[in-house]
Write a structure and sequence with these properties.
Layout (H helix, E strand, L loop, with lengths): L1 H4 L4 H7 L1 E5 L1 H10 L4 E6 L1 H6 L1 H9 L3 E4 L2 H6 L9 E6 L5 H6 L4 E5 L5 H13 L4 E5 L8 H6 L9 E5 L1 H10 L3 E11 L5 H4 L3 E5 L8 H4 L4 E4 L11 H16 L2
Parallel strand pairs: 2-3, 5-6, 5-9, 6-7, 8-9, 8-10
Antiparallel strand pairs: 1-4, 2-4
Helix pairs in contact: 8-13
Length: 256
């Protein structure tokens, strides 16, 4: 059990290539995605009784399920009230080359985004908007951080994610495949002024650090800096909120 609890730490996740999914929904999605994704499952008797179909499926895939007490399960998670199930999974990130070989139309690039909730919410928004991939730069929060995983609400399993990318390299190779690069920057050109034809083109949206935005070297490489107008009295928008709007604007144009 102690080795599972160690997966709450990045070093252990990096060493083993594993991560944790919490809750019965996480187990359900992991079992549906791939037979090679789930390594093992820990659950309370109550959770097994409440979700028999998911544990029957785990058994059919020959996944080991170990019954544990609520106290033991709580030691494996960092939540106050665990949902009775912890699934140990193989990590799911893919390569930059593999993503770009598929000629994507919409990508979110997280450039030094360090808040787990923001990172997970951007990934979830990208999934909802039909994005083809999400890139996590070096310096961004770990994709497999438990708070990131929880805030994706399953989207971590729905679309390709590339981790530890070099921001400038990612911009360069994406541009070489024909994608335009937009930085979501409050002081830039206001989004409502950009025409649909432009937004419909294959696009990488780059989202910066919550506190200090972008490095100058990043802004020097993008095609446009794009901001969202503030019509009320708010000083600024949360990066995850801004990302949701930007990604959906591209999605609206690309799916018109």
């Amino acid at each position: 059990m102690r080795r599972v609890a160690k997966l709450l730490k990045k070093d252990a996740r990096s060493e083993t290539g594993l991560f944790l999914l919490e809750g019965p929904q996480g187990l359900k999605e992991a079992l549906e995605r791939s037979k090679n994704l789930v390594v093992e499952v820990y659950a309370t008797e109550d959770a097994v009784a409440r979700h028999p179909e998911q544990f029957a499926r785990a058994e059919s895939q020959r996944v080991r399920v170990e019954l544990v007490t609520e106290q033991v399960l709580k030691a494996m998670t960092d939540t106050t009230t665990p949902q009775g199930v912890v699934t140990v999974c193989n990590q799911v990130d893919v390569s930059l080359t593999a993503v770009l070989a598929e000629k994507p139309k919409l990508i979110a690039l997280l450039a030094n985004v360090r808040d787990p909730g923001n990172a997970g919410t951007i990934l979830r928004a990208a999934d909802a908007a039909g994005a083809d991939a999400v890139f996590f730069s070096k310096g961004s929060v770990d994709l497999y951080n438990n708070k990131v995983v929880r805030s994706t609400t399953g989207s971590i399993l729905h679309l390709p994610v590339v981790v530890d990318v070099d921001i400038l390299e990612a911009i360069q190779v994406a541009r070489e495949t024909g994608m335009q690069i937009f930085a979501a920057n409050g002081g830039g050109e206001q989004l409502p002024t950009i025409d649909r034809e432009t937004l419909a083109k294959p696009t990488v949206w780059v989202f910066g650090n919550e506190a200090w935005g972008f490095e100058d070297s990043t802004l020097a490489r993008v095609d446009r800096q794009v901001g969202l107008p503030i019509y009320g009295s708010a000083e600024s928008l949360n990066v995850a909120t801004a990302a949701s709007v930007c990604l959906y604007e591209s999605a609206f144009a690309q799916n018109a």
